[in-house]
Design a protein that fits this description.
- The protein is an alpha+beta fold.
- The protein has 3 domains: 64 residues, RNA-binding S4 domain (Structural Genomics Hypothetical 15.5 Kd Protein In mrcA-pckA Intergenic Region, Chain A); 78 residues, Pseudouridine synthase; 150 residues, 2-Layer Sandwich (Pseudouridine synthase).
- The chain contains 7 helices and 18 strands.
- The strands form 3 sheets. Strands 8, 9, 10, 11, 12, 13, 14, 15, 16, 17 and 18 form an 11-stranded mixed sheet that branches.
- Strand 4 and strand 5 form a beta hairpin.
- The longest helix is centred in the middle third of the chain and has 12 residues.
- It is elongated, with a radius of gyration of 23 Å.
- It starts with a strand and ends with a helix.
Length: 314
């Protein structure tokens, strides 16, 4: 055990659950007291805050227990922290919450404003910086940097850092073929903030999306049939997994609409509430994996698919 700046630093010599390890190393501390430490976010494994009592430690890990009350907890119905270290905060965002205000000086609550208040409680000098964004009605994994320098670095090298980016969408109709790649060129009209897709290079930005239909409410289309099956009176819908090769504005929404199968609930490129029985845009950022810009190790975060997506298909 090494004391440093009033924190307790413990080195792991053999695999063990975090709860058992702390009970053994913290002078016979009761399980309830250990749970309190974890709940107060006072325990780190390496540089990452750890709140799970059953987290498995491995030989060589360093566990730090803060002597103070530690980090403040974030309690917000639309934002949950799934990972936090000295460099990054990764959250699970709910639909209806902007990543950052659309206009300067806006008082609207956003993911940014919630996290800014959270880090300021920890340290008045702390800041939070937007790395990428999710649309207001899109839910799922979102990353913020703790320094402006790190923000600039991640934005500049985002394509090189990201190793996996997977979305789940509930679409109108059935894509045909059920699995494939959409490759088009995007042009944005500043007058109406709409993005238009061209199947040929018209000088726009190249956008590539790979997709796979996971589940559908209708029978498989005939191999001889061309084009998507429309929503129509039968109300066909599909659950589709999408992998981005590029990260253009509204890429998934525009690409699916260009195939005749817009995202359910999409007011901008689809039929809005007319197609959505759950009153939301049915698009979810399920997986984000990237090379941590400081540790240079791949970190992977996954957010469960909203249960209502599957209920719509029943």
């Amino acid at each position: 055990m090494i004391k440093r700046k009033a924190d307790t630093i413990l080195r792991v010599t053999e695999p063990a659950q975090l709860m058992d390890f702390l009970i053994a190393k913290m002078g016979g501390m009761a399980r309830s007291s250990v749970k309190q430490l974890l709940g107060q976010r006072r325990v780190k494994v390496g540089n990452a805050v750890q709140t799970r009592h059953d987290f498995m430690l491995k030989a060589g890990d360093v566990v730090t227990v803060s002597s103070g009350r530690g980090n403040s907890q974030l309690n917000h119905p639309k934002l949950k922290i799934v990972y936090e270290d000295d460099d990054l905060i990764v959250v699970n965002k709910q639909p209806g919450l902007l990543t950052v205000a659309s206009t300067p000086g806006s008082s609207e609550t956003t993911a940014y404003s919630i996290l800014r208040a959270y880090v300021k409680k920890q340290n008045a000098r702390s800041g939070i910086y937007v790395v990428h964004r999710l649309d207001r009605e899109t839910s799922g994994v979102l990353v913020f940097a703790r320094s402006e320098e790190l923000q600039h670095y991640m934005r500049e090298y985002w394509r090189e850092l990201v190793t996996e980016r997977t979305y789940i969408a509930l679409t109108e109709g059935v894509l045909n073929p059920r699995e494939g790649q959409i490759k088009t060129w995007f042009t944005e009209d500043k007058r109406n903030a709409m993005v238009y897709s061209s199947p040929v290079d018209d000088g726009g930005d190249l956008a590539i999306t790979n997709y796979k239909t996971l589940k559908t409410t209708s029978p498989h289309p005939s191999p001889k049939q061309r084009g998507p099956l429309p929503l129509g009176e039968t109300g066909e819908r599909s659950l589709v997994e999408l992998h981005l090769e590029t990260g253009r504005t509204n890429q998934i929404r525009v690409h699916l609409a260009s195939k005749g199968c817009p995202v359910v609930g999409d007011r901008k490129y689809g039929h809005g509430n007319e197609s959505s029985p759950i009153d939301r845009l049915c698009l979810h950022a399920k997986v984000l994996a990237f090379i941590h810009p400081v540790t240079e190790k791949i970190v992977r975060f996954e957010s469960p698919v909203p249960k209502e997506f599957n209920r719509v298909l029943l």
